[in-house]
Structures are given as C-alpha cells and as structure tokens.
Amino acid sequence: EEEEEEEEEEDALHDKPPNPIEIDFDGIAERAVALPLPLGRYSDLVAIRHDRFMVVKYPTISSGEVNLTSSEDDLDQERGGSLISFDVRDLSAQVLVSSGVTDVHVSMNKKIMVLEKSEKGYTSELTAYKAGSKPEDEDSDDLLYRTRKSGTISLDRVRVLVRPKDEWAQMLLEIWRRVRDDLFIDPLSREDFDWKEALRTAVSTLPRINTRAEFAVVVSYMLSELGFSHAHVSIGDDGRAELDRDHQPGFLGANFSEWDDSLGGYEIQSIVKGDPWSSQNSGSLYRASADIQVGDVLGAINRVRLTPEKTPGMLLYETAGREVLLSVLKKDSGDLVATRTRALSQELDPRYRDCINKRTEYVHKTSDDKVGYLHLSDMERLGFSQFWRSYQTESINQRVLIIDLRGNGGGNISALLLQTLTQRALAMDVPRRGSPLIYPPRSPLSVGMVALVDENTGSDAELAAHAFQKLGIGSVVGERTWGGLLAVSRSDVLNDGSVLSMPTQNVCLQDDDENEHNNLTNSVENTGVIPDVEVKRAPGNMNEVDEQLDAAIREALRLIGENSSSSSNFFGKAVPAAKEQEVSMSNTSPWAFKTFAKFPPTLAEELKKKVKALEKTSDDSVDENDKKTTDTKEKKKKKKVTGVAVKKKKSVEDDANK
C-alpha cells in the first residue's frame, strides 16, 4: 500500500510541470560528500528518484596482466558489470543484478528500466524491469522462467529494413558535416583544397558502389583530401560477420615441428613461458601438471589421435578457455604420460613477454650489463604499466637505458613518463653501510638514454621521441617515424556502428630555429621525427638480426665512454662518506683500527656456520670414540701381558719352594 501511495504521489508530480531547479554554486565544492561505495570502476549513473540512483560497477582488472589484445572498454563490453541501487537517505546500497550488465536505460517517467547485455559490441539481450527494483528472476537459474512476463525482450522478432545506399548517403553527409564543424581548423577556409568539392566528388560516386567496403574507400579518399593524420572511419556492419564466425580456437603456447612418422606425433620445439604467476599470460604447456619439456612429442588431444591431416591447431578448435587432455611421449624416458591443462584464448601476451625478456637478456649480455632495456607497446595504460614494471630494475647502477618505442601507435601518457625521465637528482642519501640512495627516488642518474623508433612509431610516441632530442634526454636511433602528431579528443559513432576519428586539436611545438624566431609549429606532422642515428632494417633478416637494437647498444656504450662516472660521484664530485668508506675498507688503510664494523652475518651465513660447527663436533666425537677404542684395546693387551707375567712368576716361586 505504501508503494502504491508513493507511485500515486509520483504520478501526481509527473502530471505537473517540474519546478525550476536552482543551483547555488557558492561553496559547492565544500558541500561534496563521499558516498560509502566500494572502490571500483563505475559508469551509467542514472537517477530514478530525488533520493535514489543506479550505477553499473565493472570488475577491476589485474594490474599484472599484459592484455595486449583487450582494452578496459572491450573487457567491460565482454564481461559486463553489476547494477547497484543507492539510497541517499540512509546511505545504503543494494545489488539489483549481480553481473552481465553493460548498459542501463530508464524511461522518461522513471518507472521502467531496460538492462542491456552485449557481446562483442553488439546488443545480445534486453530486459525490462521496474526501475530501481531487484528482478524476481535474478536469483533463479531456471531459463524457462525468463518468459515474456519476466520482461525479456525478444530481439529475434526485431526486423529493420535498411536501404544501404540511402544509409551510405546519410553517413557521408554526416561525416562531411562533423569534419566541417569539429576539425582543429576550418576546412572551408583552406586555400590548398576545396572541402565542398571533395563532398561533391564523393557523392557522385555513390550510385556506382554496391558494398560497404567500397563505401569505406570513398570515405577514405574524401578524408585524405584533408592531408592530416588521425582522420579515418572504421568498418561498421561488416564487423557482425566477425561475431558470427567467432569460434574461439585454443592455444597451448608452444611451437611444434611438422609431423614426424618416426615419432608418431608433433615434436615440441619451444614452449612459451610468459608470466608464470598469471593464469592468462603464461603458456599452457609451461603450466601443465606434467613436466613437459622441449623435445617431447604431442601424440593426442582429448583422446583424439594426431595425424598429418589432424594437426594440433585443428583439434584445439573451439577449446579456448577449456581444459584439454594431452597425451605426451617423454623424450628422456620414452614414457607416454597424460596431463591436463587449460587452453589459452590467445597467446600474443605470453609470446610478447618472452620476446621482451629475450631482448633484455641480449642487451645485458652484449653491453656487459652496462645498458638497460624496456619496451613500450603503446602510450596508454598498458605502456604505463610496462614502464614502471621495468624502469627501476633496468636503470639501476647507472645503466644507460634504451627505451624501445618501435611499433608504438601512441596514446596520451608521454607527459607522465617525461616527468620521470627529465627529473634530475637533487640530493643523495649516503648511509654508513650500503649503497647511496638518490633523491628524489627513481631519478635517472645515468649518463644518458637512447630512444629506439621506427616507421610505426606514431602520435604520442613521436612526441616522446621529439622530447628526447629537444630536451636533451638522449639520442634517437632507428628510422623516421610515422609523422602523425595531432590530438583526437573524441570519436563519433555513425548510423551503422562505424566510428569516425578526426584530429580536433593541433600540437604546437617550440622549434629551435633562428630563422623562425622560435615560432610555434608542428614540424612532426607529415614529416616524422628524424633520428640522430638512422638505421634501416632489411626485410629479410628482421627475425634473425636486430640491426637497430645493435645500433642502440653501440650508441649507449658511446655515451658511457664519453661521460664515464663511478658510483661514488655525484654531480661530478666525490661523495666524502663513500670515499672514506672505500679507503677504510682497503688493505692500505691509514688508520690502525677498522673504521667500519663488519656487516652482521646473513641467515645463509649463519646456517653455513652452524653446519660447519656440527660437522666439526661430529668429527671430534668420532676421533674421541676412536681414541677410547684404542685405549681400551691397549689396556686389555697390557692386562693380558701382566696376567701372563704373574702366572710365570708364580710358577717360578712354586718350583723354588719344591
């Protein structure tokens, strides 16, 4: 009854025109209140009453995972989140739907809400419920309960008649209009090309195109008239075919040989390791319960015998994320073992990690551990985590750091990285024992850095390479970069699901040119960053010899040779305490006493000392037992000799008496 009365009151309120809303901006920041919601990633904030709202909470992503193939937005669309209702009066939260929600919509009268679940970016399920209430079938696993009465909207009955050519004409005009209104410069004011003429040319080709791919070519030609980077349109409706054909093959994280008749299977040539602590970014065979090694032979998958026609890839079809049974012939013992492991949905991430680890070891070995290496795959959250994963360990001991930006398509974190790379040490904490500590922490104290670039280094990564040269951070080695330094602040979705990307901001650089009087220009756009040491890669030996990485190592060693310094130097001056410690610990100490106490023994040293003491005690006890045994034997022998002598003496006395 109370709910009905509340609904009647709300209906009465909706019948009346809404009262004007007045916002008092004075001191509004001081009136903010933190709501008692758990930490997480929230979106789709929807108000359902003046004192209640709903929000979708998405699960957090493990910071240790590489996730080269999925962004946070992609994972949100795949996994969905939970729908939470919050009451402002008593500050209480209630979970309405536990998982799977990707979007929520509320009707104009705030009575009905529609929950959306998506798959690969496409709506897969729509369900209507009373706004702000927990669905009755939320706790039920019975699929039969999800009937028309439950609110499930059947999308199978939705039919939309689309005339592609009419849709393409509308999209073409919309693209032209948005570029006209939102490009970082007015295209109609350009003298080098006519934006209206570009539209007329594109429209004249519409009657002759018949597919979405041909329309994409027309749009590409029209946008290319601008002469700017970051201007393109993604494919829309054709992406549906990828969803229909997504059969999710599985991967084991290994390289196999061709079929071997003598072995009766496929020999394992290499095993992908990745991050062993991550279930998603490590190789399946590396995590298998059996000790599978290189040289073992894979004979069957899920009890299906492998043949020259039935390859491992064929039998792993539709096994992504599922457990598989492997029959493996051990090379060393010749035993046939069975092991279970979970197939990967993709193996790009663990292979990438192995590649980076291999490059890092190569750089350390080639430079005699004088040069460090880290790779940034992009300038977004992944590149940021890769930087902090490797920066501190690779820049220790004043190593010259090689920052590999090859293949980096850009992002927006170059400013955050440059704050660290341009920070200079202000002080040094020198303890009585141990190594000096730099302040601020993580300040680069090496003699320089090297940025490695190629033709696929673009956007924000180019800005970082440009900063290396202009700010004097270090040298740039490799090939001329992509040449696309413009900023994209938003993307627009078109009628068929296509996404329009265009530069909405220019990036003005302070170029040091006396003739230009330090004018602000964008010398990187359509030109690229020209490296200090240019090295081109031959297509034939990219997998065998990395000539650019070798050149970067040589450049780093050159910097070390030109600016040699020791760990006891700071700003070109010797540290007194470090110098004193070095002298006092040497054999030619000028003092008659030790100025520094010895380090306390480590746990390993203490255990070693105890083991030696036990061994010595055992040896002493053995020696003592041997001595006791020898003494006992001598006493028995002496006693025997004495007994014989007594008997002889007694015999002589008896004879004398006789």
Task: Enumerate the spans where pLDDT stays under 50 for 5 or more consecutive residues.
Answer: 141-146, 565-569, 571-593
Strand content: 15-25%
The biggest beta sheet is recorded as: 6 strands, antiparallel
- Mean of residue pLDDT? 80
The value of Rg in angstroms is 38 Å
Overall strand count:
30
Distance between the first and last residues' Cα = 142 Å
Helix content: 25-40%
Count of alpha/pi helices: 14
Structural class: alpha+beta
Give the overall shape: globular
Short description:
By secondary structure, the chain is α+β, with helices and mostly antiparallel strands. Helix content is 31%, strand content 21%.
Give me some keywords for this one.
14 helices, 658 residues, alpha+beta
Could you characterize what this model shows?
- This protein is an alpha+beta fold and 658 residues long.
- The protein is built from 14 helices and 30 strands.
- Strands 10, 11, 12, 13, 14 and 15 form a 6-stranded antiparallel beta sheet that branches.
- A hairpin with a 7-residue loop joins strand 18 (427-429) and strand 19.
- Helix 4 (195-205) packs antiparallel against helix 5.
- The longest helix has 55 residues, at 603-657.
- It is globular, with a radius of gyration of 38 Å.
SSE blueprint:
Elements (H helix, E strand, L loop, with lengths): L1 H14 L25 E9 L2 E7 L13 H8 L1 E7 L4 E10 L1 E4 L5 E8 L2 E9 L21 E2 L10 H19 L12 H11 L6 H13 L7 E2 L5 H6 L9 E7 L4 E7 L25 E5 L2 E2 L6 H4 L7 E7 L6 E7 L5 H19 L4 E5 L5 H14 L5 E5 L9 H8 L5 E3 L7 E3 L9 E5 L6 H11 L3 E5 L7 E2 L3 E3 L5 E3 L3 E2 L2 E2 L9 E2 L11 E2 L12 H16 L6 E2 L2 E2 L1 H9 L18 H55 L1
Parallel strand pairs: 16-17, 17-20, 20-21, 21-28
Antiparallel strand pairs: 1-2, 2-3, 3-4, 5-6, 6-7, 7-8, 9-24, 10-11, 11-12, 12-13, 12-14, 14-15, 18-19, 22-25, 23-24, 26-27, 29-30
